[in-house]
Each structure stands twice: as structure tokens, then as C-alpha cells.
Amino acid sequence: MTTLYDERAGTDVPTRRITVTVNGETRVAEVEPRLLLAHLLRQGLRLTGTHTGCDTTNCGACTVLVDGKAIKSCTMLAVQADGHSVTTVEGLSGASELHPLQEGFKDEHGLQCGFCTPGMMLAAKALLDRDPNPSEEDVRWALSGNLCRCTGYQNIVKSVLWAAAKLRGEAVSAE
Amino acid sequence: MYPSRFRYEAPTSLDEAVGLLHAGGLDAKVLAGGQSLVPMLKLRFAAPELLVDINNLPDLDYHHVDAGGVLRVGALCRHADLERSALLAERQPTMAAAAPLIADPLVRNRGTLVGSLCHADPQGDWASVMTALGGHVVAYGPNGRREIPVTEFVTGPFQNALAYDEIAIEAVVPAPKAIPGGGYLKLERRVGDFATVGVAVAVERDRGLVVSRAGIGLTGVGGSTIDARAAADALVGHALSADVIDTAADLAAQAAEPRTDHRGSAEYKRNVVRTFTARLLHRVAETEERAA
Amino acid sequence: MTKALDEIKIGGLGSSRKRVEDNRFIRGKGNYTDDIVLPGMLHMEILRSPLAHARIKSIDTSRAWDIPGVHLVLTGEMMATRNLAWMPTLSYDTQAVLATDKVRFQGQEVACVVADDPYIAKDACEAIQVEYEPLPVIVNPQQATADGAPVIRDDKENQPDNVIYNWEVGDKDGTERAFAQADKISTLSLHYPRSHPSPIECCGSIADFNRATSKLTVYMTTQAPHIIRAAVALVAELPEHMIRIISPDIGGGFGNKVPVYPGYVCSILASILLERPVKWIEDKTGNLISTGFARDVYLEGELALRNDGKILAMRMHTDADHGAFFSDAQPSKFKIGLMHSTFACYDVPVAHLTARGTYSNKAPGGVAYRCSFRVTEAMFFQERMMQQAAYDLGLDQAEFRRVNLVRDDDFPHRTPFGFLTDSGQYAKCLDVGLEAIGYQDFLRQKEEARARGRRLGIGISTMTEPLGAGNSREYDILGIKMFDSAELRVHLTGKAIVRTGARGQGQGHETTWAQIVSHELGLPADDIVVEEGDTDTAPFGMGTYASRSTPVAGAAVAMAARKVRAKARRLAAHLLEVSEEDVEWELGRFYVRSAPDHGVTIQECAMAAYSNMPDGMEPGLEASAYYDPPNLTWPFACYIVTVEVDPDTGVWDVLNVVAVDDCGVRINPMIVEGQIMGGLTEAYAMSNMQFITFDAEGNCVGSNYMDYLLPTAWETPGFELHEVVTPCPHHPIGAKGVGECAAVGGPAAYVNAVMDAIQDTGVRNIDMPVLPDRVWEALTFRRDVSGAPPVRSDG
Prior knowledge:
The structure holds three protein chains of three kinds. By secondary structure, chain A is of the alpha/beta class. Chain A has helices spanning 37-44, 100-107, 117-130, 136-142, 154-167; strands spanning 2-3, 16-22, 25-31, 63-66, 69-72, 85-87. Chain A has two domains: 16-91, Ubiquitin-like (UB roll) (Roll); 100-167, DNA polymerase, domain 1 (Orthogonal Bundle), CATH 1.10.150.120. Chain A contains five helices and six strands. In chain A, helix 2 (100-107) crosses helix 5. Chain C folds into three domains: 22-30 and 484-627, Aldehyde oxidase/xanthine dehydrogenase, molybdopterin binding domain (Aldehyde Oxidoreductase, domain 4, 2-Layer Sandwich); 33-135 and 202-250 and 257-290, Aldehyde Oxidoreductase, domain 3 (Alpha-Beta Complex); 368-468 and 631-781, 2-Layer Sandwich (Aldehyde Oxidoreductase, domain 4), CATH 3.30.365. Helices cover 28% and strands 25% of the residues of chain C. Chain C is globular. The termini of chain C are far apart.
């Protein structure tokens, strides 16, 4: 059980108990209704791969999958995830294997500072789950809710197309 | 970044939700997609005492056309559902054109059309579309259902006609009586931006390509959504010739009440209204001619 | 015959080896400041001023203190009792930490709260009541210098007005004489608008003062940890050896994370007072409204021209709006940075530059955002002036540049402002660019399209820029010289660690510094770990910004590796039982000249350094190097952009972008290309959609991501990259800086393209961002369009 505010003494703040499946594991937490899902993940569950970059729901660095859909976790309350399943970047790879998206981003230099990368990969995963053979335009459109300051996007698109090809079982360039 | 404190309820039936709003008084807000409300909570532009989350209400995530041709969009139908809707692509060109232009793909996965109407942002796209289509909102409260035309539903910037204990449960677009055509053009500085100018055009034409019904809604060029009635009326009874289109475009520009700001001068925005209205009408005219 | 090592295979120079950093980032296992949790950590939020200029009449924090979970509420008054309400800036000015007498820009820090969590801290900030008395507001240099303008810095002695400095360089009289001889004078006035680097990760710090050890550790989003340590030692009066600054992974810097921000200082004081770690992470609004912005410079530029296109002289006046405090991080000798590197790629016989800096009611800064110390402004002004001059003379854009570009055999070339450029193949780069874009074909296409009412345009931007500040004779920040450093230690099994005084924020240092060592020593790059950012372990350096790391820190890495190799040679001689003169080197191996098969690997030398040293030799195999660069490096670039403009809406779309970059030897081509594409995107952003402006009350427009627009993958064009290689003659591995080139040279290419599409209107300038409404205004009314503040509104 995760209690988010360990050191609150003598306050009378109502909290709510929620059950969320995160990366396949059932997690239970006591949270204030105002707690954002992004903060539950980062501070409550110590999954810091999901990042927060803005305060107006624009940058997409906080993107996670909720029931398979890519959403901005800073614009969802943690209590709204009760009974639902969340996938973060930590849940992308298996125990020993990287997801092809992760491999693709490394192979095609799709990241520089790495801050937008988890969100990018999850938004891309949602695309590939729906459309295994996207065009470049499809990829750019699907990622248009995720901002990157470093790469200029060209290599991000290549990374996603690399992953799509690998998932389709085609040969790809390798390290 | 951090909302102020509020109470939160997640009812599982519509009556329960209405009951909570009734008890909650004026300081309660309904939470659906949350893509407009949660950002306001985070910036503390809104600080309600109670949030009533309707995401667990059953059977509200639909959009369908009934036997009579009426399109109904449930309160939990997400923008993304409409963006990917084959039904809309086939039957409702104005809506199909607007859906991909709402915010960005991630926001579209959560945000709802009905919620967007309730939020009544003058820069909101759906209100213009529904205005052009002559749609209405179905409200549900302690006294049951009532229907409110969209033009009466939006009462001002961020203001709607719902009573404090009513929930908007559905948006309705009347069945077309003739062949529908139309579209939505949005001048935005980039994806995810609000509209500097948005124009929704919805026309119906009979077999002779004469306009039998028209509606034009304008986004972002006034205190709230603008119903360019005179411009739309000028199309009825005519075929879409270049002259007819020009007249309507001019009237649409005149109906706009834009302000000069960092997005551009009032004059510029009026010009874009004129340009977009003309372009949309020309496209409609060309589509049918190609098909004919 | 033993086969020589393949340098590319082992990850040496020229290898596009995959990045070491990626392994943790793709797993979401980066270690950014906000990811770090320390036991007992508290959270700090800042209360900011809603007004741009106002006297503070009172601050009541009592209700904030009453909120459960609040540990500390700090105001300027409390800071003042500890002499911390003001701090020195990196430009010899002072800056308020927390406001005391007045607030001087919207968003200025007024108070801060430390609480159990940031939600409570924010609740408490809301409970603080401040009474303001508004004062008149200044949002541009014209207002700042008008008669009767209020003095913003009335806190300073000897500051009677709002002028910070007047500076000049060049030959005033010689330039005047040349202008008198001109066949034509081409003039241009414009405003390079305020912009913001806006990395996705905001600024933040975790200050941890340990009373038991008297040591202060601060985790901080900083590109220059050693500068911070020095600043903290001066400001907080703590002894330097008891201060440890750790710069963990940084989510983008671009110059935004160089200055010392009030939030850092407050978190440090709070930690000292509370004896617990205090974390401060700002939000995006705080970042955009108060941290180091970029640009905001006005230009008056003139070129004296001969009819055949030769430039006879250049004259420029720049007016820089620095905001409320002069806090730029830049070489202290140059008030307007390296603005005077303008026109360095052209053979201009004589020139004169005057510069003025003023205060205004805006956040402090100016030097940031991939600017190479104001070189973004210098090159933008240059290429915009060049375009207009070509039009004024009726000459082709490319040919006009070619006539004036410094020729290959003119190097070394002394510019009229005293810079020495040493290498380049400028004309070749231009040719490669013109060929790639299909220049002649495009001009034909443009004419044909025009006949059908469509508007196409092409924009060229060519420039060389000074990267790698800098030599100790001329460059310092706060008196500290701008060298950089590297320490290399080779372990007994031939693995190695290198630490430098740089601090990457995505440039890939962990990957590329290893490649330099690999090149010098023949160790596989995979066998070399790179560390940066911890002042307890890293050698002193001035940090990573202004594209200085490859030129300076990279050079230090090479020099340290060469010292190691020199010692390894002596070990090799010992192992091979020959004298040093008989030993030859090839990648990874020493061998006997007369018996090439008789050799030892570098790994064997390393082992010997620990187990089999010659008599009298100190054991171990390591070296450090502090590198004082003899000169700046001078990469050259040619950027060409084609666009189409929609005349009815003013919207413009990019058709093609061609980039030709000559940055000398490329350590890792993949990484270099990534840097260029990032810069081209920022150039696109600045030219198309991105800016910060102010209304007449000083309200900041563009203080959050709803109005400060970064392009997404959807708008951002694709880029075609080309390469020319002219090695730097003085850099140990022939490399030049490159990180900022595309941000420096790019904007003019985009703007020139749009201006070209509307050239028939006679409009000389549309300020960036070249928004659709501005293009429409230019087309409709045939007039120049300014974007300078205050932004117009209906009231």
C-alpha cells in the first residue's frame, strides 16, 4: 500500500483508496482526489520514467497508456485511474528484452536529452498497436501531441518506422 | 500545476450523478474527459468544491445514426472516436473535417464533444460545427430530459444554459433532408493550438444542386461562437455559383466580431473568415460536380 | 603481419557509434533532478509577481504559515537580514533573489514556501497576501530611454537612467569614408524578438545541507556546475570545498540552464535553515516568464556597396533589451557578446558597430538559446542585410554572396572587428547547397508559379561563426578564464574513465569523448566510461554552452590522452626492451620499427603501469589536461530553404530545407547530424511561430505553452543534410564546434525565403515570427511589419 503523504500530522484531508494495474502489477494507493496521475506514478510509485514538462497539457512528456490509449497523465486525476490499467515506459521492455521501439530509438538516434522520449515511445506504441504499417505522415500526425526540443523529429520518425518494420517481422539495420 | 483541494465522487448511475450535483450546489463541476477542466484546475482558474466524475456512467460512449438519420453523440464519446469514425466520414462531412483538428491526438483520446460544448470556449471548435448543423444538446436533471438548441446552449464565453443540477448527456444532429456537404477550416499556429479563426460550413443540396439548408458557425472571432445566419441564409435557394459563394463569404466576414490581439488584427481575422468560407463552399461545389 | 585496428569498428573518430546515454533513457531510467528523492526531503514553490513594475507595500504571510505541512515561508525581507535578497550576476550587475522594495517584471520572485509536498506549498503560496502599488511600465528600449522614463534600477547607486552600457568596436571614421564612396547604400531595420530556449525539462534544484558534515550538496539543472559552485561560494559565503554541485541528467539546456536563478538560492537557504533537503522544481510558466530568455535586440544596419556587388563597408547599431537585471553569462569583455563576429565570412574591408543595452520591466537575460553569445543575432542581421542588399543592387542572391565570401586562399583572414578566421571552403559549401536545392530550376519554377498567382520563395543563409570560447587573453566570465579540462585514467585491464569540466544536456558527451580517447589510444570506445557534472570529481571547467565543448573540452580530452600515450610509449619501450626512439605507434599498438611484428598493445602497457614499471617510473597510467584554446573555431554553413506562401491567409509552408555544414572533423557523424536537425527546427520555430511579447502593462504573452509555441512533428519540415570537411588547423583533432550552427544560421534562411516570395511588394522586413497575419498585412498594405512590443490589442 502506498500512502502518499507520510508526514502529514493532524490534518483532516479526505483521501480515497484506489486500485490501479501498473505495468501488469496491481498497486493500491491512498490518494487525495486532486493528485494528478503523473504524480501518483512519479512520486507515489517511484516510476520516474514518466516526466512532467509543462503546466498546460501541451508537451506530452507525461504520456502513458491507460487501457491501451495514449493519454497525458498530467491531465488525468489519479482517482480516475481506479480500476484501470496503466502502462509506463518502465513497462515497455520485458525482463531481458527491449521493445522494438526502444531499440529503434537507439538505432536511429531518436533521442538526445531523453526527456521527451518515454512519452514519444508510448504515443508511438499506441499508433503501432492500431496500425502496424504507418506512413511517415501517419507517424508525424500520431506524435503531434508530443513536443521535442532536441531532435527535430526526423530521427524520431525513423525510429518509429524502424520499430514498425521490426514488429512486422522485416529485416532492420542493427547495431 | 497543482489543483486546490476538492471533494470527488464517481457515481455509477445518471440519477446518482444528478443527485450529487443537486446536493453539491453551485460549486460543483462535472468531470468527463477533463481535457479542459483539469488544466483549469491545475492553473487554479477553477477551484470547485466538488467534482462529479461521470466516466463510470454506463452506455454513454456511443455515436450512431438512427433509422431516421438522426446522429446522436453520447456524453462519453471521445474526439478520437469521431476522428476514426467511418460513419461520420460518410454521413457528416462537417464533423468529420473538424474531429481531427481538435487539440492533439492525446487530448482527443480523453476529451469529449459534449464536454467541449459544455465548456463553451469561444475558441472551441465543436460549438461552431454544431451551430452550423443546427444541432441541440440533451440535458438531464432532476426534472428529466430537455433539449436545448446549440445556439441557445452556449450563452457566453465559458457559459452554458445548463442548470446547476443538470448534466448534458447527448448531442444531437438532425437528419439531413437532402445531400449533406460541408467542412471545417481552422487557422491555428500549430497542431494543438486554439483556433485563431475557425469556420464550419454545413449545407444540404437537393438533386438539382440547389441549397435547401445551410449553416455557418465561426470560431474565435467573437465573445463566443458566432452563428453567421445571414451568410447561411444567403445560400438557401441557390446553386453554389461563384457569385453566391462570394456574397455568403462577405456576409460571414461581416458577422464576425474579432478583436485585434497577438494572433492578428481584427481586419486580418475577418479576411480569413471570408477566405475560409469561400474555400469551403467552393470545395462543396466541386465535390458534387465531380461526382455528378 | 599484425592487422591494424579498424578505427571505425572500435568506435574512434568518424564512427557513428550508438549512444551510451540511450541505454538508460530508453528504459525511463534517466536521473533528472526531479527524479531524485532524498530522505526527509521537502518541496519549495515560488510566489511570483502578477505585475510588471510595482512597489511592494506589504507582504502578509501569516495565513501561509498556518497551513498544516508548511515548514518555512521566505520573503525578501527575511533574505535581506542574511544579505541574500540580492545576488551578483555573471555580468557584474546585481539581481533580486526575492523582491524587497519593488517588483521589476511580471513573474518576478516575491516569496517562497517550503512544505511537505508541492501541492501544500502551492496552497500556501496562494495564502500569501501582497499589496502592490503599480508603477509605469517599460517594455522596449525606446520607452526606456524616453524623457521622464521611470528608473527601473533605483536600487543601484550611480544608475540615473535605464542605460546599462554603450559599447563600440571597429573603425568609425574609416567606415564613414567608405560609405561616402558607395554606389549604393542598403539599409535595414528590424527587431529580433525575445524568444526562450524552453527545454522541455524546467529548471530545478535539490539543496541538501548536512549540519553534521557542514557540507552543502546541491543537485541542480545546470550546464556549468563549476560556475555555480563558485557563485554559491561567493553568494552564500560557504567555503568552496564544502560545496558540491551535482548536475545529473539534464532534459535539454540550450543556454537556459547556465544562469544562477533565485529558486536555486532560496532552496539552498531553506535547506540550511531547515537542515533538510529542499527540492525546487519550477513549472513551465515560471520557466518562461522568469528564466534566461534570448535575443530581444533591435538592429539598424547599413551596407556600403559597389554596383558590381562588392561590399565596401558595414555599419551596425544594436539596441539590446536586457530586462530588469543584466545577468547574461558571456565573456565579460564583450557587453553584447560576439555580435561583432557579424559579416566574418565576407571580405569586408572596414566596419563599425555600436551597441547599447537597456533595462526594462521584463525578465533578465538575453544570452541564451543556442546563440553562441549573440551570434544568432549577428548572423541573422547579416543575412537579412545581405538579402536586401542583393535586391537593392538587382543581383542574384547566390552570386552576390559569392562575390563577397572570403576565398579559400585568403586564410588566415582578419575581420574588420579583429577576429581571425583560419579555415574554410565557403564557395564550395555554397555550391553544394545550390546544387542540392536545384537553384536554377527553382528560380524557373518560381516564375512559372507567379504567372499562375502562386507565391514561391527561396532563402539563402551563409555564415561562419566563432565557437569555442575561448582564449585566456580575451575571454573570461567574472574573471575566470574559459579553458576546459579532462582527466583520463586507464585501469590495469586497459579500461578507462575520462572526466571533463563540460556538462552535456543531450549532445552525447558520454559517447563522443570516449571516441576521442579511442582515436588517440586505440582503446575500444566501449571500454571507456565518461563522467561529467559532479564538482567533487570533475576537473574544473566552464561548462557546456555556446558550442564550446568539442572545441575546448574535447581538445582537453585529446591532450590528456596524448599525455597518457606518451607515458605508455615509455612503458612499451620497457616491455619491448628497446629504446623509446625505436618505438612506433599505430592505433592501439606500439611496435619496434625494425621488427613490426614485435609489439605490445596499449592494454599490455596499461597492465605494465601497475605491475611492471621501469625503474624510476611512477606507477599508474593517467593524465589531466587543462586546455586554453589558441583561437576560436570557425565552422561554416550554408542553409537554403524554399517555401510557398498562401496569399489569402499569409500561411507559409516549407517545401525543402538543405543544410551544408562544414564543422571540420566530425567525431560522430550521427550525433553531428542530430545537432544540426535540432538547430534547424529551432530556427524554424523562431521564424514561424515562437516568441514572447508584452502588452503595454508589461503582461507577458507567451508565458506558457498555450501561447509560446514549439513546433510538433507535424509542422516541422524534413531536412536534407550535406557535409564539407575543412579541418580546424589548431584543434588537436581538427574539429570545430557545431551544436548551434543551424540555430544561428537557420532563421535567416526561412525568413529570407518568405521575403523572397513577396519581394514584388517592395516590403523590406517582416519581424520574426513571420506569422500569417503579418504576411497578409505586408501583402495587402505593402508595408513593413514590426513585431516589437508592446503587442497591439483592441484594449
